[in-house]
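Collaboration report, partner site 2.

Our partner group contributed sequences for two proteins of shared interest, and the home lab folded both. The records are reproduced in the order in which they were received, starting with the first partner submission.
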Amino acid sequence: MSQFGMQMPGGGGSRGPTPDVYTALMCVGTVCMIAAVALLWFAGSKVAPGGMPLNVQDPDRIELPR
């Protein structure tokens, strides 16, 4: 049949790989993780010394905001 240029019905060109459910769940999980880290950063900046969440408080003198 190929000598006449005929093709089988439904034999369209193959498409590339498409995202599946697991890819969507991974993207949703990544967005949620970034949001959680941002919220913890903002909450940590309120109680950390100097407003920098990566600073460690002195265990003998812990101060909380009023």
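Second partner submission, folded after the first:
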Amino acid sequence: MLSKDMTRDRLGDVIASSDLFDREFGAQLASWELRYQRQFIDRAGGRSYRLRGFARQTRNRSIVLLTPSPWMHGGVFLYLTEGINHPPDGARVEVLANSISLSEIGLQRAFLVESIEMLPVDVLSEIDPPLGLRQLSSLLFEHVGMAEASKRVFARLFVSSPPYEGHIGGMTAGIQAIASRPQVQRLLSFMRNILPPALRRRSRTTRIVGGIPVLSNRSWRFEIGQLSKADMFKPCVERIDSAGFSEVSIAALTTTTTATLPDVPLALAAEDFWVESSNAQELRLPIIKAVITSHMLNPAVASRSVDSATKHVISRIDILRESFGFDEIVLGRGGLLDADSLGRPLSTLRIARSSARAGWRDKVTSKDLQASWNRVLEPALKEFIELSQFKADSIQKYGNSARLHEFNSKVWRALERLDTGKRGSLGPTLDEIAREANVQTHEAAKTLSDMKSAGVVYEPRPGRYRMVL
């Protein structure tokens, strides 16, 4: 059960196995969907009705499915005659119509439209705020041991980010496994199983509703797993989706060829990471209701704020490049510090707009954009670079026998910094290594003992350690 401070939806702790568009009533719906359902059909007199809902296109140009929520396929069919304006797919409309039968196409009840007008969706006043980022992160990763910053990145994937200037929205994160790959794959499987199949499909599908083929919602999909470079390049670098979705989130277990492509590259080290077994489907409804509510909001951002933030990001990227001694190639498209407008500056914008959605704010300021770089992306990049270099250097020195996923990388990196490499040196003490690594002495002792058994550390005198070079 969700605690009172974890959700504002009184129906948030209900478990059901329905797919996203198959939800029909009651506890399967978010609270705002229930309100919209109550406003769905009113009798205007005689056989005349007033309907309010979201238009969904069908294969028949004259037939439109009207649903109480854009995230449902249960509703009624409208019949549009010549001269009636055809509503855009997904638009919220108010319709005056008469009840009729269209038995020739298998509909015993439909509504002949007399008039149709567009309705605004005033999200901030009409819809209750969903779970915030901290709450969503806590709910998602209660059974996962991972740095809080990484948890918030993964939570942003579920919240996603709206499209910007013709480029797809969404959020993408890549995971470089310093920890055990099977453990990371276990995390990805857990995240995948939270979502219903409708949000994990690439292919365009139609759904049969009352015998009528209805075009599926193409707003957001979430792809999880180990993807090829070709699969990641278009959404992460070119910012387009060949499947036609307006938002694409990706959580990928990366390789050396794909690690730099996502918006936020992460390196998960063994000491900070573990996954307990838990039933992901128990979280499905609460998470769905929070996610689809967030996706109703489209936070605005002024172009001058983007320009200002881009200057800040580019200057910080230059400092990062110089501090790690990288060549300028890392600034190119798809590079680790991609400085193109579609690269890290757009990644920063996507993070900021995702954070705004999670905070239920309809605007993103220049300050928000800079904070997204300073607090999320730059620290993630630094940690990723340091851990990736540590992994590459260690494998080069010791080969796969280094067994990186078994050791505390903080201790290993601390010893590398403290060991001067001078001939005849006895090396740093256990206490010095523990202080440098910021871990408890017994943790450092265990790691050093394991490293010594693996042949990557030796002990010139009891309690003093050196790297095997």
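Feedback sent to the partner group on the second submission included the following. Confidence is low (pLDDT under 50) at residues 1-8. The chain is about 35% helix and 20% strand.
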